[in-house]
Amino acid sequence: MIEVKNVEKSFGDSKVLKGISTAFETGKTNLIIGQSGSGKTVLLKSLLGIHTPDSGTISYDGRIYSEMTDDERRELRTEIGMVFQGSALFDSMTVEQNVGFPLTMFTNKTAAEIRERVDVVLKRVNLLEANHKKPSEISGGMQKRVAIARAIVNNPKYLFCDEPNSGLDPKTAIVIDNLIQEITQEYNITTVINTHDMNSVMEIGEKIVFLKNGVLAWEGTKKDIFRTDNEAVVDFVYSSNLFKKIRKAQRKEDFGESL
Q: The whole model's pTM is what?
């Protein structure tokens, strides 16, 4: 579990995070949502240790980041997997080399041990046939699966995903969402996803944190989001006619309201 307590972060005179307190649960897909400028990217980077909060604490299973030694922080980084928005694969490397890169950099495993572990995670994401291909030779959806395989190759405790469905068609996006959720549950990972994709929210939103203007304006589950009366959430989530219809149908079921 990752716990955030009263975290604030400013850049110059602009306060971006304003006393954020929440918890991201282990074994669940935790989503951060909000409009552009809401602070969700700064929060994600703070969780990753890229930004240092001005005040407040972030703890990883009881370990407070600001109180860690340099060695403890380096150890924490080996427990983190990251799926970047654009996959961030090395064009000059094969799929196998990309996935094995963290093991080469951060472990003392032999070449044979690395190949064995790479095969395990590539099999898990259904990509064994792509071992020796370059990123340019596979589809965007396959590239995203390679990025997920690389993120989990070192058995992370924490998995962070920044807009994992960016650039994907809706069908492929659902496949990626389900894969991330399955891996989260199988490996009992604390997964945090920064997204603007409402389909992802409805598909895998086991814990949803909604930010507005740097404030945690609402949190709940994908079921709760249909029932909330929080005006900011309603405006954000139900901007499309489809979600408005879903909301009305859900409220009619709950409260007997007429359409």
A: 0.87
